[in-house]
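Subject: design request, 171 residues
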């Protein structure tokens, strides 16, 4: 890889920076460095993802994973959940809230939602929390559906019989 990049130094490769640079070049339809193949780009993506996951969710196999993830995204996730609860309780005058972040925000958010992250989120990725309401046995019930780049996401501890909907209290 260092040969493709024309790097003659003994320094190690900064995969996160390299991933960012290649993503920008490719996203703007600029010519990639000579010798940079799609397979090499995928290898860079996987290595950068692995290193970022180690930063945002260290020790994901360890018993304290849930606590670490809550610490990394706790304030933002709490804000999202509190606003959904306010809407469910009729205490909000807003029908939509919008947050903005980067790929380095989306990765720990997805990890917090129990998603297995093996590759970097695509450029201009998005996460949408939709709140739904239904009547069950004459009682109002609120549910949350999560979409990542337009695709519904399975969350852990799903409610039986409803593949993509989660009770607001679950969050």
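Subject: RE: design request

Done. Sequence follows.
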């Amino acid at each position: 890889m260092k040969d493709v990049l024309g790097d003659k130094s003994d320094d190690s490769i900064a995969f996160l920076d390299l991933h960012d640079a290649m993503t920008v070049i490719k996203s703007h339809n600029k010519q990639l460095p000579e010798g940079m193949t799609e397979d090499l780009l995928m290898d860079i993506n996987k290595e950068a993802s692995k290193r970022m996951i180690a930063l945002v969710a260290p020790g994901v196999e360890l018993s304290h994973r849930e606590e670490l993830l809550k610490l990394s995204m706790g304030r933002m996730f709490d804000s999202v959940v509190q606003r959904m609860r306010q809407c469910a309780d009729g205490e909000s005058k807003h029908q939509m809230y919008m947050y903005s972040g980067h790929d380095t925000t989306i990765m720990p958010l997805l990890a917090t939602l129990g998603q297995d992250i093996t590759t970097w989120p695509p450029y201009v990725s998005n996460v949408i929390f939709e709140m739904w309401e239904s009547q069950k046995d004459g009682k109002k019930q609120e549910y949350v559906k999560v979409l990542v780049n337009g695709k519904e996401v399975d969350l852990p501890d799903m409610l039986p019989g409803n593949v993509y909907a989660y009770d607001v209290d679950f969050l």
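Residues 2-54 form one domain.
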